[in-house]
Design goal:
Structural class: alpha+beta
CATH superfamily of the largest domain: Zn peptidases
Radius of gyration: 21 Å
Number of domains: 2
CATH topology of the largest domain: Aminopeptidase
Oligomer: single chain
Order of helices and strands: HHEEEEEEEHEHEEEHEHEEEHEHEEEH
CATH architecture of the largest domain: 3-Layer(aba) Sandwich
Shape: globular
CATH class of the largest domain: Alpha Beta
Number of helices: 9
Length: 364
């Protein structure tokens, strides 16, 4: 695969506003791109994009490989008479990182307006205040408007989506930095995989899916599984690196170390999570070895993915989470290695072609 093409497609997708619940533009773009390589491509009732490549063996199990399209962000909560906005979190926004962050504010007519989430001036704060995080409710988004009437004129109302202002730039060693890379990467990997599988049709039927709602309820994939009627699933979700100074000793996951399988994740507040299906994990390890690419492993506590709920569909769906590791999750600027992005696609292609017609879907 051409690294430059992969990088340029990632930039395109990273720049599309797609706050959870407002993924329409990304879904339409993704569906159109998938249609160039899949036998069928459609958007289901709730907004999931499903591209299908039919396998050569109708008796073989079907596989759904999916990545969530949506991102964390904000919703407009209050319109100030002076033209400012108060925002509410949509998903896991890290409040201590957002002061002074550039934003895009959506309107009900589909237009987007640049803004900044105002930061209180340093010289106006006491010593004690300078060391504290101001809660989101105390901050205001500034679009430059001077009245509430101007907001209404532009159809900016309560409930409108707000996202980090999209940025994307290159770092050294084929690494890139940008907004919302974690899930943009998944969509780009699915497109590259679709291209490869369209040239060499697999034995199994493969559904390449972009899901909605992952950042708010993690249940969009459940509906996609019902629509696609899949037998097993791989969730493309970038795990966090543990190789920065602040995370020393927290995990063995490193950038440029190859794709990583999440062996287990668990979210204590919801008592949800999943453990990688052994048969799928074994086959993924074999696929990585055949490709000459290392396969990393991680454990995530305090987090989950769409797989936690998708695995409960039907008679139970075997699942495995994997992806290219990235840094600075949920911050306005994330970092990922294009080598890891490409290597993940290579391993996945090997995996797809390695699934036997009599693959055992049972856990043990």
């Amino acid at each position: 695969m051409a690294m430059t093409d992969l990088r340029n497609k990632l930039e395109q997708y990273a720049r599309i506003p797609r706050v959870s619940g407002y993924e329409g533009e990304a879904a339409k773009t993704f569906c159109k791109d998938l249609a160039a390589f899949c036998d069928t491509a459609r958007i289901d009732r709730v907004g999931n994009v499903i591209g299908t490549i039919s396998g050569t063996d109708e008796n073989a199990p079907s596989l759904m490989i999916f990545a969530h399209m949506d991102t964390i962000g904000f919703l407009v909560k209050y319109l100030d008479p002076r033209g400012f906005l108060t925002l509410e979190r949509q998903g896991g926004i890290p409040e201590k990182l957002v002061q002074g962050t550039p934003l895009l504010v959506g309107s009900e007519n589909g237009n987007w307006y640049p803004a900044v989430l105002g930061a209180r001036a340093y010289q106006t704060m006491s010593d004690a205040e300078r060391g504290k995080v101001d809660p989101l409710a105390s901050l205001s988004a500034d679009l430059g408007f001077t009245s509430e009437a101007e907001l209404h004129e532009q159809e900016i109302e309560v409930g409108c989506p707000v996202c980090y202002y999209p940025v994307f730039f290159d770092l050294e060693h084929d690494r890139v930095c940008g907004s919302y890379l974690d899930n943009a990467v998944g969509m780009v990997q699915l497109l590259e995989l679709a291209k490869l599988l369209s040239g060499k049709r697999p034995r199994i039927t493969v559904h390449l899916v972009g899901t909605v709602w992952e950042e708010t309820n993690a249940k969009g994939a459940m509906i996609a599984a019902r629509t696609a009627k899949t037998d097993m699933a791989v969730c493309l979700l970038s795990p966090g690196c543990g190789d920065t100074p602040d995370l020393k000793g927290t995990s063995n996951v490193v950038m440029d170390g190859g794709p990583c399988v999440t062996v287990m994740n668990f979210h204590g507040k919801t008592l949800d999570g999943q453990v990688a299906h052994k048969g799928m994990f074994d086959l993924m390890k074999q696929s990585a070895k055949a490709a000459g690419i290392p396969l990393q492993r991680c454990i995530l506590r305090g987090a989950l993915s769409d797989s936690a709920y998708l695995q409960l569909e039907g008679d139970g769906i075997p699942v495995l989470d994997m992806g290219a590791p990235y840094r600075y999750a949920h911050s306005p600027k994330e970092v990922i290695s294009m080598k890891d992005v490409a290597d993940t696609v290579t391993v996945l292609e090997k995996f797809v072609h390695s699934v036997p017609s009599d693959f055992d879907l049972n856990r043990f």
